[in-house]
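so my prof wants the structure for this chain in the tokens format not the other one, which i didnt know existed until like an hour ago. anyway here's the sequence
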Amino acid sequence: MTEDNRKGKASDRRFATKLLHFGAEIDETTGASSVPIFQASTFHHHDIFSPPEYDYSRSGNPTRQALENYIALLEGGSRGFAFASGMAAISTAFLLLSAGEHVIVTEDVYGGTYRLLTSILDRLGIESTFVDMTNFEAVKAALKPNTKAVFMETPSNPTLKITNIAETTSWAKDHGLLTMLDNTFMTPYHQRPIEHGVDIVLHSATKFLSGHSDVLAGLAVTADESLGKRLKQLQNGLGSVLSAQESWLLMRGMKTLQARMEHSERSARRLAEWLSNHEDVTNVFYPGLDGHSGRTIHEKQSLGYGAVVSFDVGSGERAKSLLSKVRLPLVAVSLGAVESILSYPAMMSHAAMPKEVRHARGITDGLVRYSVGLEDIEDLLEDLDQALRG
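here's what i got, hopefully its the right format
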């Protein structure tokens, strides 16, 4: 069976099967049950007048290509691209814009994206306006004559606000705007934005896709081939590509994505409900809660609620006390791993935001973010309870 035949059949399979049978799961040459790691920087030209498919690993590597085809299959897109980090993927996508152009962005976006837009791309003449995308009228009001793109993050990081993807992309297409969406929290298991009209889907694959806190990687998927060609030109020109070794590690992690996400989400739903009834917690952010304002919209565009729960303990002092007393989760930057990770956005993921900007967007000094791993939920709750009670 040829690789193309396997890929053709793979597109018709259910998600759990696609994770294991994605078109390159069996090496054509040896029959190996794992994609070979092509640890090569360059490739021999057997015929100088007929260049080979691969000539230099910055431009293309067979191991990385297997990963890129893999994520394109899972997201239902045309082409996939693997980068050295999530921010490398996001930065490359934003460089589809030119000086003098403008982008509308989710206001409580990941701190690294905020830093990119406000301290790097602004110097290159690319303007940005941050808006509360739960308010569609605010999105429309942000349109300017030089607006060229809309960047969404839903659920947003870390307050888990929900953007109506289909409504936003439909409006954007009417105005000829490019749409991009950071799908890190949901992954293609729960949410496939291209099916709702998004042009480019982005991931920090360091998180749930890898799932083991051992890979730094970013992925992008384009909805159509013409946009894929433009992104490929940028990827090759900028050179921030993922290595063959990390491409292989990422593929290995992705094979268990559904099993990990199902377990972690069950625990996250239990955690969110438990926190909602805890006397030492002032607010809980999780789209699976009955009181979440975006739950109805989220359920129309996503198949699950994810494994990240944010909650407010009332003050920075109480948050720091909590972080010092928990025993099970890592207290660290990042999320989406087999082990639970507790983060403090004010000093970690969103430290690049000025305090007044953070507070205006609901990222208070008492807010913590819990990425639920694969531990027994009863142990996690007992640990969190003793830490909250001090």
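also thought this was worth mentioning. The domain at 258-389 is CATH 3.90.1150.10 (Aspartate Aminotransferase, domain 1).
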